[in-house]
Write a structure and sequence with these properties.
InterPro entries: OspF/SpvC_sf. By secondary structure, the protein is an alpha+beta fold. It contains 6 helices and 12 strands. Strand 9 and strand 10 form a beta hairpin.
């Protein structure tokens, strides 16, 4: 899939070629590349966002849209979704996993990550403070949360603004849903197969699910002083940190979104027709 160039360098959406050439491409604020076992399309805003999240020790809301893709369909799915992402000018990025045992990597996609073959980032701006909160779990039973705990960050101040992020970098959830709607239609049109909904995720479509990957605290020996932060295990569910920002209350399932979208389109048509009729009668009275 190639587009007309607006720079000297060729810019292409090709999963396999990106893997083989293993280089970074740039056009109009978007980068394409393959590294660290991921093939990506992303922006400079994404880089700043990832750095801010890491500086916050991954204790800010980290909602993502996961696409479940059968392994052999990943190259085509990435090509389709990355080009759509670019065309829609979304602000962060998406990534697709490497194939198993690619080149000299001894990588295999673990079963607990099935259903997360392609990830779309949702940028949510937060005013950070030194103390954050997350849910504490016992390592002996990850399915049951113990309580919310405070966690003091090693870095103080407004970390997101430190990385030049502003509330304007956050876009409406409607645009993400519109992307998901078009993406699912594309995947179905090209007969892409799903790999099953990721365990612990919140399903929103045939291929898609939601999850907040903000870190949770684990208590290995039932001793709060020895707690550590980790990526939330599947057993913790789709919002294991119990973050106050819960997108499952705002991002509805895809079928409901499509019905509401159709209703809005019908309402717009009816409004246009009624306005046209009203205008016709008004002009008719003025003329006659």
């Amino acid at each position: 899939m190639q587009r007309d160039n607006d720079t000297q360098e060729e810019f292409y959406f090709d999963y396999v070629r990106l893997l083989v050439e293993n280089r970074m491409l740039h056009r109009s604020g978007y980068y394409l590349g393959a590294s660290n076992q991921w093939v990506r399309i992303f922006t400079i805003t994404a880089r700043r966002y990832w750095l801010a999240q890491a500086t916050c020790e991954h204790l800010t809301a980290d909602w993502k849209i996961h696409f479940s893709i059968r392994p052999r369909d990943i190259p085509l799915a990435f090509n389709l979704l990355s080009e759509l992402y670019y065309d829609m000018k979304l602000p962060v990025g998406l990534k697709a996993r490497y194939p198993d045992h690619w080149k000299d990597f001894e990588n295999t996609w673990p079963k607990h990550m099935y259903g997360r073959e392609i990830t779309v980032y949702i940028l949510l701006y937060e005013c950070t403070s030194k103390t954050r909160q997350t849910m504490l779990y016992s390592n002996s039973d990850l399915s049951k949360a113990k309580r919310m705990i405070n966690w003091d960050l090693s870095n103080a101040g407004d970390i997101y603004s430190m990385y030049e992020l502003t509330p304007k970098d956050q876009i409406s959830l409607e645009r993400y849903l519109d992307f998901v709607d078009q993406a699912e239609n594309l995947l179905e049109k090209h007969q892409i197969k799903s790999n099953g909904c990721a365990i612990g995720d919140y399903p929103i479509g045939k291929y898609t699910s939601l999850r907040n990957e903000k870190f949770v605290a684990i208590d290995d020996n039932d001793t709060p002083e020895k707690s550590r932060l980790i990526y939330p295990p599947n057993e913790c569910g789709y919002n294991g940190s119990n973050d106050r920002i819960d997108l499952t209350k705002e991002i509805i399932d895809l079928n409901t979104y499509r019905k509401r979208k159709k209703q809005k389109q019908i309402m717009k048509i009816l409004f246009f027709l009624s306005s046209s009729v009203l205008l016709f009668f008004t002009l008719n009275k003025l003329i006659f």
